[in-house]
Amino acid sequence: MAVRKTQTRTCVACRREADKRELVRFVRDADGETHVDITAKAAGRGASICADQACFEAAVSKKRLAPALRASLSEEDVERLRNEFEEALRIRGVADSRSGR
Ligand SMILES: [Zn+2]
């Protein structure tokens, strides 16, 4: 097995493979709570979605996020995750503009 420089992950919504830094990771922690994993380093079962609102919505509407995490997500959970996802995109946007790209 060749060692790859970058680790890729597949978006659960559109199945696009991308550098994991381009994706937003969701993680189900030991308590069974699902969160957006901004550090991408949290322990637990994870699922990745493109840093794109459309992919989040697709993952939810196609019911791909919960199975990927082996979690059950209530309406409230989805709403909370949507907010966390939007926040993650916002933070990322700020970071990107700071890096001068
Ligand atoms: Zn995607």
Word description of this protein:
This protein is an alpha+beta fold and 101 residues long. The chain has one domain (8-98): YlxR-like (Hypothetical Cytosolic Protein, Chain: A). Helices cover 38% and strands 22% of the residues. It is built from 3 helices and 5 strands. It has helices at residues 53-61, 65-69, 75-98; strands at 8-10, 17-19, 23-28, 34-37, 45-50. The strands form 2 sheets. Strands 4-3-5 form a 3-stranded antiparallel β-sheet. Strands 1-2 form a two-stranded antiparallel sheet. Strand 1 and strand 2 form a beta hairpin. Helix 1 (53-61) packs antiparallel against helix 3 (75-98). It is globular and about 35 Å long. Zinc ion is lined by residues 11, 13-14, 16, 49-50, 52, 55.
Give a brief description.
The chain is of the alpha+beta class and 101 residues long.
Which helices and strands appear, and what pairs or packs with what?
Blueprint: E1 8-10, E2 17-19, E3 23-28, E4 34-37, E5 45-50, H1 53-61, H2 65-69, H3 75-98
Antiparallel strand pairs: 1-2, 3-4, 3-5
Helix pairs in contact: 1-3
The chain binds zinc ion.
